[in-house]
Amino acid sequence: MDLFEYQGKQYFARFGIPVSPGGVADTVDEAVAQADKAGYPVVVKAQVQVGGRGKAGGIKLAANADEVRTHASNILGMDIKGHVVRRLWVEHASDIAKEFYASFTLDRSAKKHLGMLSAQGGVEIEQVAEENPDAIAKLHIDPVDGLTEDAARAWVAEARLDPQATEGTVDILLKLYRCYVDGDADLVEINPLILTPEGKVHALDAKVTLDDNASFRHPEWDEFRGLQVMDPRDELAHEKGLQYVGLEGDVGIIANGAGLAMSTCDVVNQVGGQPANFLDIGGGASAQVMADALEVINSDENVKAIFINIFGGITRGEEVANGIVQALEQVELRAPIVIRLDGTNAEEGRAILAPHLSDRLQSKPTMLEAAREAVALASASVPERNAGGSK
Length: 391
Ligand code: GDP
Ligand code: MN
What we know:
It is a single chain. With about 400 residues, this protein is α+β, with helices and mostly antiparallel strands. The protein has 3 domains: about 20-90, ATP-grasp fold, A domain (Dna Ligase, domain 1, 2-Layer Sandwich), CATH 3.30.1490; about 100-225, 2-Layer Sandwich (D-amino Acid Aminotransferase, Chain A, domain 1); about 230-390, Rossmann fold (3-Layer(aba) Sandwich). The protein is about 35% helix and about 25% strand. The protein is built from 13 helices and 18 strands. About 45% of the residues are buried.
């Protein structure tokens, strides 16, 4: 789960990382109220989950309430790289002497955490990496050893930050590492991390990605989740406990097992189609799971054909078939279904489906034939209702 900047700053604050005082605003009036509270000058910041807001005009300094009004009304509703601004963060503006960069993430190939620190902050790190890779001091951290103060100090020295910033940065790096590890994040990034003319170091921006696999031990994350702009398809699938990833195409996919689901996406691509999603109903899926899966696929208006690809192992053919029949009774499917059913109890499954077969529910003996048919149906599709013809 990606956090918005203001949520990331709230998360940072829990770990003692210094951030500026401020508050969120969804209207111009709220922005002025927050600015009055934070104390002028303030900075008005678009809350969208995309970088480069500054360059896009989504971050503005304001010296008084009138300026806040002007900037807030300009920024609210602004489209930044496809993200519409619905919320602002207004904080007390900082004076900046130097801008640095700091982050922790996982380096899978090294099987270690990776810290990155640079004296060249405020610009996108990808740009620094490309133009001046030596300006990034990288530190691999064994998760068992953790980050010691000595290691952090040597790392700061290697990054050649302004010496005035050394103590403050060492302190923040140790806290940021705790935030990353104890806070169960996949990524924590501060860009810019600033040194003020008074010699203080603090976080001016926050990028935090939480590790969803750890959400069971963080009931407090629910407050973040409520505000996420989630894909409604993902939301429904999440509610139903399905392994679902929304994609851009028009062929809805249901398969059992992550490997088969990925292969199914590949085969659809191979025959010239575009998958609308990845959906793995898992092993031993019941009729209800199949019905839930079809409901999620059906909620996606882009779906023009549905390809169900089942190779029964633990998953039994008759359960799958019952699920499809059940779904046809429960929901009015907008798109035709092509199914390839093989493996455990496939015969029984096909027998259950037989009386329901029509041009809206077809059965094909192989994965490739089924993919071809589904893709052909999707590209030929004219709006039609009453799928399945079962009732
Ligand atoms: P991003 O462009 O989406 O990464 O947004 P940031 O929060 O990193 O802000 C972009 C830039 O705006 C920073 O690099 C700063 O130069 C500037 N900025 C942000 N907050 C302040 C502030 O409080 N005071 C000043 N002077 N500049 C700021
Ligand atoms: Mn930034």
